[in-house]
Amino acid sequence: MSLPDVTWALGRPTIGLAATLASRLRAYGRDRVPLDGGLVVASNHFSWLDPAVLGASSPRILYYMAKVEAHRVPGLGAFIRAFGCFPVRRGESDREAVRTMRRIVAEGHALGLFVEGTRQYSGVPGQVQPGAAMVALQEDVPIVPVAIHGSQGWKPAPGGFQAVSIAWGEPMTFDGLPKGGRGYKEASALLQTEIRRLFDWLVEVHSLGRPDGVPPARRDH
Questions:
Q1: Using CA atoms, how far apart are residues 108 and 99, in angstroms rounded to an integer?
Q2: Could you read off the pLDDT of 92-102 as tens digits, one per residue?
Q3: How far apart are CA 102 and CA 202, in angstroms?
Q4: pLDDT digits (tens, 9 = 90+) for 59-79
Q5: Is the pTM of this model over 0.70?
Q6: pLDDT at 140
Q7: Structural domain harbouring 121
Q8: What is the CATH number of the domain that holds 187?
Q9: C-alpha closest to that of 48 among 75, 15, 78
Q10: Is the residue at 213 inside a domain?
């Protein structure tokens, strides 16, 4: 058993439960996540709360990528690395981070990526960067698109915490696309469209009071 296995086993009933309660978390479609084999979990990103709620919702251990500055914070760096998190240098080519991403999925694990590259402050998902598509195409693994809604501007609200919801999409594969820049761009555009579709679905679900047990609508194939 690896260190991330142990840390996640301890973290789910503690940090995961705290995040779930603090966000009144509700997840839709998590049964769509393949339970074995390499894959990329690709989510939008609004808040520092997102890694905790996404991890709490996921049936798989997620190996997250985080900016190198976070890894340099005393205490925090060691803490997130215990969960399998690895660093990336943003704004430049980081070949070591790319090798780590590919190794994670090649070894049959689930790579967790916030695909816009940074938090979005507009209140809606932003442009998807090509990293997720690159890993999926190069290693021939699926991408599971995820939308998070409610964590934008999250704070304790009168009468209870602000509600956060997560929608898990169907695994996406990109057979026929080239393993290069054009393929990464096309796959990223498809992924961006699907994350936004799931996000808009969550907005509607929130307006209806977040009914339980309703699977996200399937995408057009």
A1: 15
A2: 667 899 999 99
A3: 31
A4: 999 999 988 888 888 888 899
A5: yes
A6: 97
A7: 3-207
A8: 3.40.1130.10
A9: 15
A10: no
